[in-house]
Amino acid sequence: MFRRRRRGESDDDTVIDDVDVDETGDDTDASDASDDVVLETSATAAPDRPQGPWDVADAPDDNSPRLDLGAIQVPMAEGMEVRVDVQDEMVVAATMVDGHSMLQIHAFAAPRSAGLWDEVRDEIAGSLRESGGEASDDDGPFGTELKARIPVETPGQGPGLQAARFLGVDGPRWFLRGMLTGPAATDPVQAKRLEEVFRGTVVVRGGDAMAPRELLPLRLPREAVEQPPAEAARPELEIFQRGPEITEIQ
Q1: CATH value of 39-218 in 3.30.160, 3.30.60, 3.40.1000, 3.30.1330
Q2: DSSP secondary structure code for residue 17 in this structure
Q3: In 3D, which of 105, 153, 149 has the Cα closest to residue 125?
Q4: pLDDT digit string (tens) for 17-39?
Q5: Quick one: residue 173, left, alpha or beta (phi over 0 = left, psi -120 to 50 = alpha)?
Q6: Cβ atoms within 10 A of the Cβ of 34, count?
Q7: Torsions phi, psi for 171 (to 5 deg)
């Protein structure tokens, strides 16, 4: 994991089981759209994210340190950890850890002509309800979000429900999804730092043709590949294999 440690911080490291909603679909890109239509769509999509998350083409020159994971560049906030989630030897997500709260970020390809969040949000909500959870739309700092309670199995306590917030932002040919768990899922004060990380994330879509809802390719950061000598001030790397899946959408 990569982290910038706060002064006087303890080593307490509480891990909350990962929640994954695997979206696949048969959506097709609007490859037959004219240039005029594409330009009009891009212009109308911008107001949905006037202050981030950012496409690499319009990212601000704010000198903010970001961890380069390929398709996404994630801000490094003081005292936070960045966990790289791996599944089948592929990097599939980045998880920010702020105390006992977490923000998991996935990036997907999206159609040129329409966003995915409205459809994906309905699918997540339906899947959660079918599995015994709860979900409802709510207004949030990025527009409509999903306020949820997800089924979990807690060792020694049995089944229960865990609060979560699903964030979604549609960009130019990409869709970014975030999931907040822990105290940040219910406390706006504790959520603020993680929300700012989500807002400051830069998406590098690339020009390759990809099916809508296909995960954008992530990679281990250069610091991990080079395996530098350990130093007290250098962030650590810890790679997390995906745990039990709680919800899945076909």
Answers
A1: 3.40.1000
A2: P
A3: 149
A4: 444 444 444 444 444 433 333 33
A5: left
A6: 9
A7: -115, -170
Length of the chain, in residues? 250
Q: What confidence tens digit (pLDDT) does each residue in 90-147 have?
A: 889 999 999 999 999 999 999 988 899 999 999 999 999 999 999 999 999 999 999 9
For the chain, domain boundaries: 39-218
What number of CA atoms fall less than 13 Å from residue 240's CA on the CB side? 22
Exposed/middle/buried for residue 2 (C-beta within 10 Å: 0-12, 13-18, 19+): buried
Give DSSP secondary structure letters for 153-222: EETTTEEEEEEEEEEEEEETTEEEEEEEEGGGGT-HHHHHHHHHHHHH-EE---SS---TTPBPPB---H
pTM of the model: 0.74
Alpha-carbon gap, residue 75 to 11, rounded angstroms: 22
Q: How is residue 65 written in tokens?
A: 């340190």
